[in-house]
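Q: Please design a sequence for this.
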């Protein structure tokens, strides 16, 4: 049997026997001002059985307005509304169930606000359906909303159906009247009683709060038991309390260990029927609850023995607390909630999970205290002074600062820049790695050995490595991959650099380098525009990487068509076209054809969007095939414009328009070239998407909201777009979702966009209602006057807060570097920050904590805003400029000497430096979109902001504890691995690397041994000295006078019949007569002997493809294909290609289990 604390259990039983009326079933009501304070009918202090002197008398609480925070926005006056709605006819836009005054209501919305000076009661009739299915007139009056656009009738009952009639003549604010009557039948669901605390935890501002808020629906009375958490058991309580709004009954027995009962009160909440009210329990008037501390409140459901009870906690405090966690210490800042002043001489204690005190101290005059960090679970930081107590759990997730521009790479005291000529290899190749070891500011370090290892995709370590540095902290290692190396993602990991391993990831795949280049709409940089009825003709150019046209190569494509809101690159912030039009979205395939002798092709798409009324993106995925059938895939987007000119809409706000304001939009009219044109009598329509909110309640979820959408036209007007092609419109909006529609009178086409007026408060309410999470903060806008600062300079920080207040300006990295406290007016101000010469890290940020004090008169609770910006250090003087003296084209199969030049920022040659040079096949680099290594960017790039911030302010910043995705590793161990070696074609990979070379007087001569290869190489240089860095990339074409490329099968099994295709291209500059002879050896036979010898006559630039049919013969093994090409004179070219065949089926494996006696043999 579960044992409850005797005093608490007796109190709950007593309350259950006397009271009735609460339920946790659903209700439907709005978040609207209700009654403020509850009245206590009886109470007990010290124990639940003893009567409190205060509770002996019965009092009735006075109602208070519930605070509803409105978005910033200007008030629209009646005369302004008359002008805005001039000429707009009065219509009934919607009749539906609605929420008014915290309860169900009938809402009638009009297209033009109703004239509130007129009596409108006679225009409405409401009838209720009786049990006999008859209609009886319901008594009651209609109330207009503040803006006059909606009339409410709240005299409705649950589980009832009503018929609403609106007669003609309803007067509008613009002088119009309703000419068309309207009628609709509306049904309401049931409502049952419920009561719950409004939040899972409360910090009530000292001297400013009006009590503990409670939601009540059809619940006149409740009993609330109060427990005080024992001073040394706060950590135990926090670890016990769940994040929900209720606790199961049996868990209350556990409270005896960390809390004592101090008071019981029976409260009168509300007599209102079918109204969800927010009322305050006047805990400030109870003497037993005035002692500083943390209290638990348990609300009893009268007349019921529920398995779950509504439970919350609260403390009354004037201490606002923020904790900033660094590597080995906490910085704690204490500020008054009543005003932004620092709280000095406050007692600060760090409690362990078992209640022991890990640290105790007092805050200084700046409200600041520094505490050494001990990494223990379950710690609570508690601050107290006079009558105030505040606390923060250090196990709570840190504030989510993802809205700020913060880097991902963490700071390291020692940085290792690992780079390589490429990041993809085939089995049998050698992977090359280079590395530079520096400090946090890119300065060289003393030579030191490093430990490294190679990790396969399956996570197994295959090699331990000891790395030794050479020139200026440079390391190099080469790892030969086996022929059957696992495919997947490999890792080169280096230890001993910092707290974490430095990892360079590379792939091992059985890939084929790209040999082609595909260009859409060559020679044009602007997008291709077409009209809806036109055939889309897209020119394209196919080339081999060695420069020859892809003559005769096959091309085909797939097409995806979708609505396009931003068709003009000049106007990326403008919305064009009908946002609701998805009628032309489609996907289809196109059978292409062959490229001509110049490698060109015209892709023609017959229009399948002739009736398009909105801009479209025609996304083309094109495949250009090699002679052997392997495709090169590239993408292009053409654009369909439904008219010669379109109207675009740009909102003047960023995320949402302020509620209850005039939303501003800029309209332009642009032709397909981006030229702006004028338009007269442009029609503008504002559509209210009329999202209605309905409160529901479930014991497992607490209060939550359901929504329904019913659109209606809120406003219609006309405007002119001037000769400069622009105009502005102001549209009155309340709170909710809207759509602006603009129609061009010349074309009849509509452009539209949806937007919100007011922030989506509900989701933040839901997040904060049942967890320790906070809402998204108001941001402090920060800007610096320069892109980088030298030591000794003064950074000018511009601060623009959301409202006037006091700001704490902090410069921090792994510790606090500089700080000041300033009063900031609403219009903002500048702060000068001296850049100290000791600041050499690249994780330095300026953080601004802006405190806005409470305002009792305006009912504004204390708020806090955050600003965060990286402080960049100027390192441009430490950049090196690198150039390579190389021609546009080299002949293959020779040694060339490349001169690399390195100069400093001023252009002077560098006296002593080092450089590495790589020359890699562009067809390999394009497979992974490989970026040229950049040491300067690596060492001086912005690092992650590594300060964790926690505080107790009321739900200001979103938090999350999402788990990071784990990296999966792949492999290729399957059944076929038992059948012998993999069937692999031989592939020529060109990847040359010089290693480190001395730069003397700004120059280095580097020899490159070019192979017999035709294609394009990217030259990539990395230059460095002890603290300066530079890089370069440049492409060079390799092409012989006669280029031969063989396309082979990727794999082949014994008995398979296939073919190889040899491309012969004449780049000699003259016509050539060439003899070509094939030869084969190994596990291969030729199916057509006549194809083994051919004579070709090729004009300059011409290409011919020769096909040799083959079959893989038994036994499986290596297949050799040779070719000899000659011109009958001195020119002779001989080449060989290899391909491994394998058995078609995996080897059979037999398994036999047998027990052997001593001396027995298995046969």
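A: Design:
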């Amino acid at each position: 049997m579960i044992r409850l604390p005797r005093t608490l259990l007796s109190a709950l039983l007593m309350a259950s026997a006397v009271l009735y009326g609460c339920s946790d079933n659903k209700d439907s009501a709005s978040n609207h001002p209700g009654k403020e304070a509850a009245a206590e009918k009886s109470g007990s202090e010290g124990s639940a059985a003893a009567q409190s002197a205060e509770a002996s008398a019965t009092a009735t609480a006075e109602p208070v307005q519930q605070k509803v925070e409105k978005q910033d926005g200007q008030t629209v006056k009646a005369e302004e509304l008359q002008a805005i709605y001039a000429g707009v006819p009065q219509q009934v836009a919607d009749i539906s169930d609605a929420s008014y005054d915290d309860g169900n209501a009938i809402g009638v919305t009009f297209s033009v606000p109703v004239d509130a000076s007129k009596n409108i009661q006679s225009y409405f009739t409401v009838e209720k359906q009786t049990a006999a299915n008859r209609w009886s007139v319901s008594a009651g009056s209609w109330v207009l909303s503040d803006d006059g656009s909606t009339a409410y009738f709240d005299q409705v009952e649950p589980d009832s159906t009503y018929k609403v009639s609106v007669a003609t003549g309803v007067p509008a604010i613009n002088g119009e009247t309703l000419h068309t009557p309207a009628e609709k039948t509306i049904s309401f669901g049931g409502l049952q009683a419920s009561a719950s605390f409004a939040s899972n935890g409360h910090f009530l501002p000292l001297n400013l709060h009006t009590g503990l808020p409670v939601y009540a629906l059809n619940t006149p009375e409740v009993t609330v038991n109060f427990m005080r958490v024992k001073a040394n058991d706060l950590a135990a309580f926090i670890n016990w309390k769940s994040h929900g709004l209720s606790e199961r009954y049996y868990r209350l027995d556990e409270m005896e260990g960390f809390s004592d009962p101090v008071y019981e009160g029976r409260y009168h909440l509300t007599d209102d029927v079918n109204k969800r009210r927010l009322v305050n329990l006047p805990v400030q008037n109870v003497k037993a609850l005035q002692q500083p501390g943390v209290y638990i409140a348990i609300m009893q459901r009268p007349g019921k023995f529920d398995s779950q009870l509504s439970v919350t906690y609260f403390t009354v405090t004037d201490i606002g607390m923020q904790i900033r966690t660094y590597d080995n210490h906490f910085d704690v800042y204490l500020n008054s909630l009543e005003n932004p002043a620092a709280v000095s001489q406050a007692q600060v204690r760090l409690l362990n999970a078992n209640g022991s005190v890990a640290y105790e101290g007092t805050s200084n005059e700046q409200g600041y205290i520094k505490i050494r960090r001990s990494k223990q679970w379950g710690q609570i930081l508690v601050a107290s002074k006079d009558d105030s107590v505040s606390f923060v759990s250090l196990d709570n997730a840190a504030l989510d600062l993802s809205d700020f521009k913060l880097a991902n790479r963490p700071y390291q005291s020692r940085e290792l820049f690992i780079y390589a000529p490429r990041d993809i290899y085939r089995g049998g190749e050698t992977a090359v790695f280079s590395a530079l070891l520096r400090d946090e500011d890119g300065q060289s370090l003393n030579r030191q050995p490093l430990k490294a290892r190679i990790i396969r995709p399956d996570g197994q370590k295959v090699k331990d490595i000891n790395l030794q540095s050479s020139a200026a902290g440079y390391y190099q290692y080469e790892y030969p991959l086996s022929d059957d190396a696992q495919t997947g993602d490999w890792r080169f990991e280096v230890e001993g650099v910092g707290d974490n391993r430095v990892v360079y990831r590379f792939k091992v795949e059985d890939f084929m380098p790209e040999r082609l280049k595909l260009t859409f709409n060559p020679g044009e940089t602007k997008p291709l525009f077409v009209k809806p009825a036109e055939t889309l003709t897209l020119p394209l150019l196919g080339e081999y990487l060695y420069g020859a046209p892809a003559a005769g190569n096959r091309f085909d494509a797939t097409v995806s068509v979708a609505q396009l809101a931003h068709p003009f690159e000049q106007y990326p912030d403008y919305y064009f076209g009908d946002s609701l039009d998805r009628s032309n979205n489609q996907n289809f395939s196109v059978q292409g054809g062959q490229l001509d002798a110049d490698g060109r092709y015209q892709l023609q798409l017959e229009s399948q969007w002739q009736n398009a009324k909105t801009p479209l993106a025609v996304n083309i995925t094109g495949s250009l095939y090699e002679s052997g059938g392997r495709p090169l895939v590239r993408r292009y987007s053409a654009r369909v414009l439904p008219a010669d000119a379109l109207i675009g809409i740009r909102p003047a706000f960023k995320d949402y328009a302020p509620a209850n304001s005039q939303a501003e939009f800029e309209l332009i009219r642009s032709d397909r070239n981006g030229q702006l044109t004028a338009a007269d009598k442009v029609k503008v329509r504002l559509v209210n998407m009329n999202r209605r909110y309905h409160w529901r309640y479930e014991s497992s979820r607490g209060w939550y909201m359901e929504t329904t959408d019913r659109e209606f036209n809120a406003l219609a007007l006309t405007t002119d777009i001037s000769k400069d092609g622009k105009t502005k419109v102001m549209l009155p909006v309340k709170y909710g979702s809207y759509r602006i529609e603009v129609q061009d009178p010349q074309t009849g086409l509509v452009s539209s966009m949806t937007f919100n007026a007011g922030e989506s408060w509900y989701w933040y309410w839901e997040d904060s209602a049942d967890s320790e999470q906070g809402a998204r903060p108001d941001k402090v806008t920060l800007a610096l006057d320069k892109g980088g600062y030298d030591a000794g300079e003064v950074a000018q920080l511009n601060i623009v807060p959301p409202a006037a207040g006091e700001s704490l300006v902090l410069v921090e990295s792994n510790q606090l570097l500089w700080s000041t406290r300033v009063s900031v007016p609403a219009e903002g101000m500048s702060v000068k920050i001296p850049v100290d010469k000791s600041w050499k890290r690249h994780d330095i940020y300026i953080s601004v904590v802006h405190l806005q004090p409470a305002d009792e008169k305006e009912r504004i609770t204390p708020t806090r805003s955050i600003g965060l910006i990286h402080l960049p250090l100027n390192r441009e003087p430490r950049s090196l400029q690198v150039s390579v003296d190389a021609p546009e084209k080299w002949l293959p199969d020779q040694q060339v000497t490349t001169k690399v030049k390195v100069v400093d920022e001023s252009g002077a040659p560098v006296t002593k430096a080092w450089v590495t040079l790589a020359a890699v096949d562009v067809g390999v680099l394009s497979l992974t979109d490989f970026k040229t290594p950049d040491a300067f960017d690596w060492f001086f790039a912005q690092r992650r902001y590594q300060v964790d911030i926690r505080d107790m302010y009321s739900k200001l910043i979103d938090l999350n504890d999402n788990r990071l995705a784990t990296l999966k590793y792949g492999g290729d161990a399957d059944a076929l691995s038992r059948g012998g070696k993999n069937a692999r074609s031989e592939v020529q990979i060109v990847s040359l690397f010089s290693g480190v070379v001395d730069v003397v007087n700004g120059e280095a001569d580097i020899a490159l041994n070019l192979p017999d290869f035709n294609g394009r190489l990217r030259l990539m240089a990395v230059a460095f000295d002890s603290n300066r860095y530079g890089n370069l990339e440049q492409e060079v074409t390799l092409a012989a006078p006669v280029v031969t490329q063989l396309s082979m099968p990727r794999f082949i099994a014994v008995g398979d019949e296939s073919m190889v295709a040899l491309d012969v291209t004449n780049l000699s500059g003259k016509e050539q007569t060439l003899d070509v002879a094939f030869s084969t050896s190994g596990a291969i036979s030729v199916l057509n002997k006549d194809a083994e010898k051919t004579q070709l006559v090729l004009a300059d630039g011409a290409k011919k493809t020769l096909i040799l049919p083959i079959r893989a013969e038994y036994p499986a093994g290596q297949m050799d294909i040779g070719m000899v090409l000659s011109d009958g004179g001195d020119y002779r070219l001989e080449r060989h290609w290899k391909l491994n065949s394998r058995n078609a089926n995996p080897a059979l494996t037999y398994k036999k289990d047998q027990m052997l006696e001593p001396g027995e043999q298995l046969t």
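Q: Thanks. Anything notable?
A: The longest helix spans residues 6-18. Residues 1-75, 761-776, 955-980 have pLDDT under 50 and may be disordered.
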